[in-house]
Design brief:
By secondary structure, the chain is of the alpha/beta class. It has 2 domains: about 130 residues, Four Helix Bundle (Hemerythrin (Met), subunit A) (Up-down Bundle), CATH 1.20.120.420; about 200 residues, Translation initiation factor eif-2b, domain 2 (Rossmann fold, 3-Layer(aba) Sandwich), CATH 3.40.50. The chain is built from 11 helices and 16 strands. The protein has a 7-stranded mixed beta sheet with strand order 6-5-4-7-10-15-16, with helices on both faces. Strands 11-8-9-14 form a 4-stranded mixed beta sheet, with helices on one face. Helix 2 runs antiparallel to helix 5. The chain is globular. The structure holds 5-S-methyl-1-O-phosphono-5-thio-D-ribulose. 5-S-methyl-1-O-phosphono-5-thio-D-ribulose (MRU) binds next to helix 2, helix 6 and strand 9.
């Protein structure tokens, strides 16, 4: 069986990550032992997906303790550097803050503080495994997860370091015999669907069909998918959810055709301090990512590009949000307050 483990923690040393920018052509693991290396890996999407970014952030803090010392000032600087890499996924900043809280509880001894940071990093990964497992159990019987389903971006083990979120729900419904096929958008411009989701579907033995993002509306309109399910990077207090750019369009088209649209996300992806989607910070990425890929350029040099990495789906378009504590249904405000309170 193929090893898709995206992160390995090497306590006292660093982490080893599977470089997701090279998949599926090459399975290369990189050892990261400095904060700068961790920051670069996050910025370049060598590690990616909201929950995995959270775990990586926790590991980055442990690495900071080894590299720069575990004093409060050095750690605060490392925290700022790591948080600045990608703004949308709430998990990243939240786990870094949790790491800082964990080290404060360890007192002032350098050795004890370093150990506390590694212990927290390992706990963060173990917790993700538990959350994914519970989330999957709650999601597998969702109405509409029958026959075929459509997903966007990548939400499998590569995105969480454990089973995954939306893709793990899909896998469980497939194992239960409810699903026969998963349609995956290619997810322009960085092709997480074409490169990563199709690779994971193949590893899981699930029949997958790849489609250009531009074909998703007509696929939904044709009645061939019973549901659309994706992950999320940040869910605001009112249920508006940020996820990979293009998700909003899928949700709008699904609503137009009476197809349920679901998000699947662990509690760590909810941000009760952000009242609605308007306040979610959206990451904009380089122009060059749109006009080419992997070093090849097909658009004229120097052209401008509109390149948001995420968009926000309004809560009213979301039929349910699968979490490790159960499926939230509208109205989301009270349900999210109870979950995060
Ligand atoms: O830019 P990426 O690849 O990090 O974006 C990932 C997504 O949008 C995922 O859908 C989201 O993080 C949920 S992962 C379980």
């Amino acid at each position: 069986m193929r090893d898709i483990t995206p992160i390995r923690i090497l306590p006292g040393t660093g982490i080893e990550v599977l470089d997701q920018t090279l998949l599926p052509r090459e399975e290369r693991r990189r050892r990261l032992t400095t904060v700068a290396q961790v920051g670069e890996a996050i910025r370049m999407l060598r590690v990616r997906g909201a929950p995995l970014l959270g775990v990586t952030g926790a590991c980055g803090m442990a690495i900071a303790g080894e590299e720069r010392g575990a004093g409060a000032e050095a750690l605060a600087r490392a925290a700022d550097e790591l948080k600045a890499t990608r703004p949308t996924a709430v998990d990243l900043g939240a786990m870094i803050d949790e790491a800082l809280a964990a080290v404060e509880g360890a007192g002032t001894g350098e050795e004890a503080r370093r150990k506390a940071l590694w212990a927290f990093a390992e706990r963060a990964l173990a917790r993700q495994r538990e959350r994914d497992g519970a989330l999957v159990r709650h999601g597998r019987d969702l109405p509409g997860l029958e026959g075929a389903v459509l997903t966007h971006c990548n939400t499998g083990g590569l995105a969480t370091g454990a089973a995954g979120t939306a893709l793990a729900v899909i896998a469980e419904a497939w194992r239960a015999g409810r699903l026969e096929r998963c349609y995956a958008t290619e997810t322009r411009p960085l092709l997480q669907g074409a490169r990563l989701t199709m690779w994971e579907l193949e590893a899981l033995g699930i029949p997958g069909t790849l489609l250009p993002d531009t074909a998703a509306a007509s696929l939904i309109a044709s009645g061939q998918v019973g549901a659309v399910i994706t992950g999320a990077d940040r869910i605001a207090a009112n249920g508006d959810g940020a996820n990979k750019v293009g998700t909003y369009g899928l949700a709008a088209v699904a609503a137009r055709h009476g197809v349920p649209f679901y998000l699947a996300a662990p509690t760590s992806t909810f941000d009760a301090a952000t009242p609605s989607g308007e306040a979610i910070p959206i990451e904009f990425r380089a122009d060059g990512e749109v006009g080419g890929f992997g070093g090849e350029r097909w658009s004229p040099d120097g052209g401008d590009a509109y390149n948001p990495a995420f968009d926000v789906t309004p809560a009213e378009l979301i039929a349910g949000i699968v979490t490790e504590h159960g499926v939230l249904r509208p109205p989301y405000g009270p349900a999210i307050a109870a979950l995060t309170g």
